[in-house]
Amino acid sequence: MQTLLLLHGAIGSVQQMQPLVKELGERYKIHTLNFSGHGGREFADETFSIKLFADDVIAFLKDHNIDKVSIFGYSMGGYVGMYMAKHYPDKLDKVITLATKYHWDKTTAEKEAKMLDPEKMQAKIPAFAAILQERHTPEDWKKVVAATAEMMLALGNDNTIQQTDYSSILHPCLIMLGDRDKMVSLGETVTTYKALPNGSLCILPATPHPIEQIDTVLLASMIKQFLQ
């Protein structure tokens, strides 16, 4: 039975991965983890970064005696998966990403970070703020959001994975994007796919960015097809 690790997105948690766990659990040995500061997990001493979250994965694999794993990463989780493929290639088998933003520059980062203002979120979208509060308790959801915004700004100043890095990632990679994703562009997704020596591209129909709105059965079907 293949081992598959599911990685959540920014300001997310393992809770969002449960529908996919249900769809894939009979065929694969599924693992999930909360990144530092997420899902009630204690914050690390250092600031949020892709490297920090990759270190979380490395520690998880060591603690569970997992030598090699395939990764499905949603949004930021996919970026972490690609970072793993670049810097810890011996730990990964295959990489699958969905709704992952690969292109970061100062303008892009400022635009995304602007939407992650905890006080404005609580005032303008209180229902979502309440979800975040429940998702990250006992940690402070506002701290999670603010730390994520800081990480995005840092990515804008120095993209952790440069476009030239993808040509050195030799793992089979499936790059997926929803056709209605308003955060991630088709252009950056195709550019990354083309740079990967063993990349495959999949565009999911009628699919927006939020994972809660994704057809889990369709997504699981594409994952199974790629991993077989």
Describe this structure in words.
The protein has 228 residues and is an alpha/beta fold. It has one domain (3-104, 161-227): Alpha/Beta hydrolase fold, catalytic domain (Rossmann fold), CATH 3.40.50. It is 43% helix and 15% strand. The protein contains nine helices and six strands. Strands 2-1-3-4-5-6 form a six-stranded parallel beta sheet, sandwiched between helices. It is globular, with a radius of gyration of 16 Å. It starts with a strand and ends with a helix. The model has no long low-confidence stretch (mean pLDDT 96).
Percent range of helical residues: 40-55%
pLDDT averaged residue by residue: 96
The proportion of residues in beta strands is: 15-25%
* Number of contiguous helices: 9
Low-confidence stretches: none
CATH superfamily: Alpha/Beta hydrolase fold, catalytic domain
Secondary structure elements and their pairing?
Blueprint: E1 3-7, H1 18-24, E2 29-33, H2 50-63, E3 69-74, H3 76-87, E4 92-98, H4 106-114, H5 118-124, H6 126-136, H7 141-157, E5 173-178, H8 186-195, E6 199-204, H9 216-227
Helix pairs in contact: 1-9, 2-3, 4-7, 5-6
Q: What attributes characterize this protein structure?
A:
single chain, 228 residues, alpha/beta, Rossmann fold, 6-stranded parallel β-sheet, 9 helices, 43% helix, 15% strand, globular
Quick rundown:
The protein has one domain (3-104, 161-227): 3-Layer(aba) Sandwich (Rossmann fold). Helices cover 43% and strands 15% of the residues. The chain is built from nine helices and six strands; from the N terminus they run βαβαβαβααααβαβα.
